[in-house]
Amino acid sequence: MITGAVQDRSARGIAAAVSRLITSGRLPAGARLPTVRTVATGLGVSPTTVSEAWRNLILAGAIQTRGRSGTFVSGPLPPRARLRYAQLGGARVNLPRDLSTGVPDPLLLPGLSEALCRIGDGRWAGSYLDAPVLPGLEALLRERWPYPPDRLTVVDGAMDGLDRVAGAVLRYGDHVLVENPAFPPLLDLLQALGATVIGVEMDSAGLVPDALRKAIRDYRAVALFLQPRAHNPTGTSMDASRAALLANVLLEAPHLLVVEDDHAGAIATAPPVSIGRYLPERTVHVAGFSKSHGPDLRLAAVGGPAHVLESVADRRLLGPGWSSRLLQGVLLDLLTDPGAVARVATARFVYAERRSSLLKALRDRGVTATAADGINLWMEVADQQNALVALAAHGIAAAPGAPFCVTPLDGDHLRITVGLVADGYDDLADVLAAAASPTTRGSGRRGFGHPAGWR
């Protein structure tokens, strides 16, 4: 049907023809589309051309991918439903045990009451003209930064930092490299800016150097966004050796800016690492405190080259101006108070124990999963939708894997917030293993995905 409807065999023409088929009802909602290769063969065009058409239809909300299950007609969606981030909570439906959220355990966060009492004396009132970062906090952050940054500022959370940096350096149509899989809100953000996003394959140590080299040579990308530690969703942490290899590859693209999202912060088991150690003049590092000290503090630090940070700070003056100096005072107190420091260290240990316990229980049941660091576990399943339904029948919500994928991986996945699992690992593993289905576990592949692009 599709090949007969296409007159213009460009990516735009193919997308327009399929869109007309959907609008007319000839391709109804729920219909499964033929594979990219099948359509390409039928039209006598390259698979890349059909892939671009499919990406345009996905962004328009007309079709959706479901991992190995294939690509289906979704029909028109309201704007919010098109967001990957909105899809993460779609399976929750107020289930008793919500492991879809990706948030820290509130019982493991340091208490704020004592910190507020110690700093709540009005000394932070200041002036509109005061420096945006408390001098004491900036000095401490610089001391702990993984490389010497030209400039440093504080923003309202890690995603706010990524948003402001992206807004300062990206223009419509720019090619941007990201990990595949990646954090859905980042993909939504880059899509909203009109960027063409290229997924780069990962393995158990982070971005694959050869895959990054190929992406650099195939696309003139202007930025690379990555998570150096406790990658969400896989839990992967990059070590110093991998960072050095990637920095060497990046020498081939002197125009490319590296933006690192170190969202896990002090609860990450892996030591701090940054490509900025090798390429400080081209690396922006975002240090988050939501996972370690509390999501509602809404604070993250951003450090890097002066020309980027000055652009961020100057633009911010036209909006909020600065992040609450009162909350900055709370954060400074929590980062230096021995009791709070000990509590964060305990949380780091507890999260590691929880990851290890559930991961072992799943492996004992033949389930393939990764959870090397952070608070999430990335689990292979035979079919994403069936797995979500099976878990919901047990009162458990998980995050579907598809929204994390720039392009589909070799198999379906779920993200489980293992940081919220304090006990009952064997019972939970039984339920998860049954949902994963034993028929397609363990694909034996080397990495987490393969490079591809969408817009």
Concise synopsis of the structure shown:
The chain has helices spanning 2-5, 11-24, 36-43, 47-59, 84-88, 113-119, 135-144, 158-169, 184-192, 209-218, 240-250, 290-293, 306-316, 325-336, 338-364, 384-393, 425-436, and strands spanning 63-65, 71-73, 97-98, 151-155, 175-180, 196-203, 206-207, 221-226, 257-262, 283-288, 300-304, 369-370, 377-381, 396-397, 399-400, 412-416, 452-454. With 455 residues, the protein is α/β, with parallel strands linked by helices. It folds into 3 domains: 2-81, Winged helix-like DNA-binding domain superfamily/Winged helix DNA-binding domain (Arc Repressor Mutant, subunit A); 84-107 and 340-445, Alpha-Beta Complex (Aspartate Aminotransferase, domain 1); 123-337, Type I PLP-dependent aspartate aminotransferase-like (Major domain) (Aspartate Aminotransferase, domain 2), CATH 3.40.640.
